[in-house]
Amino acid sequence: MRERRSAKERKTRETEIRVELDLDGRGTYEVSTGVAFFDHMLESFAKHALFDLRLAAKGDLAVDAHHTVEDVGIALGEAFRAALGSAEGIRRYASFVLPMAESKVEVAVDVSNRPYLVYRVDLANDRIGGFDVSLVEDFLYAFSQNAGLDLHVELRYGKSPHHVIEAVFKGLARALREAVEIDPRVEGLPSVKGAL
Ligand SMILES: [Mn+2]
Predict the structure, then answer these.
(1) Domain residues of the chain, as ranges?
(2) 107-124: per-residue pLDDT in tens?
(3) Which are the contacts of 126, defined by CB distance < 8 A and separation ≥ 6?
(4) Residue 62 exposure: Cα atoms within 13 Å on the Cβ side
(5) What is the DSSP letter of 180?
(6) Cα–Cα distance between 93 and 71 in angstroms, integer?
(7) 95-108: pLDDT as tens digits
(8) Ligand 1 centroid to 115 CA: how many Å?
(9) Please, what is the Cα angle at 62 between 56 and 64, to 5 degrees?
(10) Phi, psi at residue 141, to the nearest 5°?
């Protein structure tokens, strides 16, 4: 099988991002975005998806974390799509219900190349270590659009914003890990249309 890895660089006046992604990794990571809580989430994501992720971002954090978080979503999505290539042999659909302490989050994904995001996570306008939780939706939108994912994220219940957001990233990781896994019984693309 072809190696499913990619490297992307993305530079704008607001951010400069370098990302290397291996979908058949072991969950190793080296992440620095300048936003500590976001690093923590991306590290959890790599670890639980069993992706190897190297990601360095330098953004205009003096403005706020918005540009950095959104552009990391774009760059990571582009890297995902490039690493996936034709998507031959993958399981394509997966979902995961992830508990974290008092919180529970459901993530469902279709690696369809027809991007859509449904994000039903109502958290008060909260901050975690200076990180604005509303940025998670911006990140997921940018990531799903560029990765070509139909992505559904729903908070079943939970209290701690830290636990809820961590469950979102870990649930996404586990769902994607399964969705991009090569199923030996799948011949070619998992679509009756013959295209993804
Ligand atoms: Mn944590």
Answers:
(1) 5-179
(2) 999 999 999 999 999 998
(3) 132, 133, 161
(4) 1
(5) T
(6) 26
(7) 999 999 999 999 99
(8) 28
(9) 80
(10) -65, -50
Distance 171 CA to ligand 1 centre (A): 14
CA dihedral 173, 118, 153, 178 (to 10 degrees): -40
Contact 10, 17 (CB under 8 A): yes
Give 4 Cα–ligand 1 centroid separation in angstroms.
29
Question: Rounded mean pLDDT of the chain?
Answer: 96
Q: Give distance in angstroms: CA of 132 to centre of ligand 1.
A: 15
| CB within 8 Å of 67: residues ≥ 6 apart | 14, 15, 59, 60
The C-alpha atoms of residue 60 and residue 123 are separated, in whole angstroms, by: 26
Edge-first strand order for the sheet with 116-120 is 93-100, 103-110, 150-157, 116-120
- The CA 182 to ligand 1 mean position distance, Å, reads 30
Q: What pairs with residue 157 in β-bridges?
A: 104
- The answer as to CATH 3.30.230.40 being correct for domain 5-179 is yes
pLDDT at position 1 over 80? no
Residue type, 138: D
Q: Residue 166 and residue 157: Cα distance in Å, rounded?
A: 13
pLDDT score at 46: 98
